[in-house]
Amino acid sequence: MAKIVVFGASGKAGREIADVAQARGHEVTRIGRDPGVQAAAEVAAGHDVAVSTVADLSRDPAEFYTEAARALVASGAGRIIVVGIYTLLETAPGVRVIDGPDFPAEHKPFCLGHAAGVEVLAASDADWLVMSPAGNFGGTSTGRYRVSAVDPADELTYEDFALAVVDEIDRPTHRHRQIGIASA
C-alpha cells in the first residue's frame, strides 16, 4: 500500500479522494487548509504520492499555482497528481477550451494560473499527472468513470472522480500529461 498525502482534504474532491484511498488500505495524511508552500514541501516529503486539490482564491493564481507545483516537485514525492480544470483540456490538437474566441476574459487569469502550475510540472523530472473533470461536477454517482475529451455536457461526481484518482495511484496508466475524467 502507498503512503499518500492529500492537500485540500477538507474540500469535496480532496475528502472523497482521501476516503477512497484510506478505504483501500493506503496510509493517508490529510491536509485540510494550505499549510504554506514551504510547509507543503516538508509534509509531502517521504510520501509515495502527493495529491493536490487546493486553491487559494485570495492570491494571484499564477503565483499560487507555480509555487504549489514547485513545492510538490521539491518534496521528492514519488508521484504527483494534481486536480486540474477542464478549461485547459484540448478541444483540438493544441487548442484548449480557454483558447476559444468566446471564453470569458474574467476567467482567464485563474485558468492561466493553473496552466502556469502545469508548466512547472512539465519542466520537471517528477512523475506527474493532472486529472480534470471533462465537464462539470454534478449528477449521481455511477461507481464508474471514463477518460474523456472535454465535453461541457459531461458530468462527473466527486465519488467517481475519487475512484479515478485512486485507481491511477493503484495502477499508474497516465504520466506527464493532463487527462479529462467523466462519470460513465
From TrEMBL:
InterPro entries: NAD(P)-bd_dom_sf (IPR036291), Polyketide_Oxido-like (IPR051606). Signal peptide: none annotated. It comes from the Bacteria. This is NAD(P)H-binding protein. It comes from Lentzea kristufekii.
